[in-house]
Amino acid sequence: MSSTIATSALRKTALNPVHRALGAKMVDFGGWDMPVEYPAGFNGKPGGLIQEHMAVRTAVGLFDVSHMGDIAIRGPQALAAVQHISMNDASKLAIGQAHYSALLYPQGTFVDDVIVHRMGEDDYLLVINAGTREKDFHWVRDNTRSFDANVEDVGDKYTQLAIQGPRAAELLQKLTGADLAKIKNYWFAHGTVCGLPNTLIARTGYTAEDGFEIYVPSDEATSKRVWNEVLEAGKEFGILPAGLGARNTLRLEGKMALYGHEISDEITVWEATLDRFVKMDKPEFIGRAALEKQRAGGIRRTLVGLEMLDRGIARDGYKLFDEGGHEEIGYVTSGSPSPFLKKNIALAYVPPHFSSLDTNVLVEVRGQKLRAKVVPTPFYKRAKKA
Amino acid sequence: MAYPKELKYTKEHEWVRVEDATGDIGTIGITDHAQQALGDIVFVELPKPGADITAGKSFGTVESVKAVSELYAPVSGSVTAVNEELNTTPEKINREPHTAWMLKVKIKDKGELASLLSAGDYEKFVAEEGK
Lengths: 386, 131
What we know:
The structure holds two protein chains of two kinds. Chain A is 21% helix and 31% strand. By secondary structure, chain A is α+β, with helices and mostly antiparallel strands. In chain A, a hairpin with a 2-residue loop joins strand 18 (360-365) and strand 19 (368-375). Chain A has a six-stranded mixed beta sheet. Chain A has nine helices and 19 strands. Among the domains of chain A are: 4-65 and 157-253, 2-Layer Sandwich (Gyrase A, domain 2), CATH 3.30.1360; 298-375, Elongation Factor Tu (Ef-tu), domain 3. Helices cover 20% and strands 34% of the residues of chain B. Chain B has four helices and nine strands; from the N terminus they run βββαβββββααβα. Chain B has a six-stranded antiparallel beta sheet with strand order 1-2-3-9-8-5. In chain B, strand 1 (7-9) and strand 2 form a beta hairpin. Chain A binds chain B through residues 1, 25, 36-37, 48-50, 245, 248-249, 311-313, 315, 336-337, 339, 366, and chain B through 37, 39-40, 42-43, 45, 61, 63-66, 68, 87, 94, 129. Chain A: It catalyses: N(6)-[(R)-S(8)-aminomethyldihydrolipoyl]-L-lysyl-[protein] + (6S)-5,6,7,8-tetrahydrofolate = N(6)-[(R)-dihydrolipoyl]-L-lysyl-[protein] + (6R)-5,10-methylene-5,6,7,8-tetrahydrofolate + NH4(+). Chain A: Substrate binds at residue 213. Chain A: The glycine cleavage system is composed of four proteins: P, T, L and H.
């Protein structure tokens, strides 16, 4: 009712009018006015979160992820700067390669998780979360002042589109001269896409599916043209435009962390079970000393996957109890029905002695304690191509 | 989707239909606007036959993939029947919101019906709310 002020304060991507024209349901996501799902009607197909989710798992989906931020770090000491502020080992990246990493506080908890791309000899691009764009930029700038490197917020320059699903490569190949078969997972190339030369094409995503993220100029006309050309080219593969609702259930099935849920300024790398992305053999990075100590001291809690045994859905923030229902042992970080697995799943923090597979726990759902068990994660893993 | 004239509506987006001659039994569900706002419905939690519900108070929950929403009773009464079909096919609420009923209740006070919205007034209310 009094939403006028709040609405005008929300940030919008260049594709906002396109989403509205498609009739998308819009939500405030990290201060951005973003589509959560699209209605039925595109290409004569049914719409909604479940359809969009299944399109990505079985065909292809198109997401506007321009709300994601981008930070460029360039200069003679760019690598040293990236190494100082991130936990993975950027010295291992070849030009054209990317990896998952995180910015940490000195106490070993998360400023944010990031994808680091090595664009050139002394040129790195960090892709960061929407809700933490300003915080991340200030953190990176303030903590790299002693390095001979320039830090630039380039988030507003790009419309970022995610083309995700088993048919994503076939679809995008219709629109680009770049040989996509040569771009391996977590690598990228530059090529002409929809007539736009030198477009960044990265084989990355947040859906646990094969797919690409492309970065095109953020003016409305270009953004709209590329969006429409991808949708048009995707019709033969069963494409659907997909919103943040499906993006969330897809990443949850793949056990990919979401800032403010599985990772935050209170959760450490060890607790979040992201061990394989932290390189302790790197001599120095912010958070390393704390992580060293925590590793020696052991962790109090760890992230596990749960599947509901009783009828009911575990949601973010719900409390967990031991099997007897006496002791509160933890909480759900993300919980939802899984559209692909057709089960109710959740990620949750529990003490390590509750983390073995098949451990029974109780989830408190509106006053009722419902049974759930610890299951292997990721909940969904795509089949590797032969 | 049009809002059927024979239903009465709440501002919390439930409907009630009074169809028997005596006017004693009310059938309750949620509106097309409610199902659209929720998205894909995957779960409903309803009271058991014999339970009492009170006008304006929560009588259960409906869940979409994304969200949990309370259900508010349009009238007071005791539950005489529950649509068990919704346990296995809750998506019927998305497809046919004004026929996929949730509860039948023996209405305690028919006077409560007078405070509910007509189809026309509900449609206006929804349009206003969307502004």
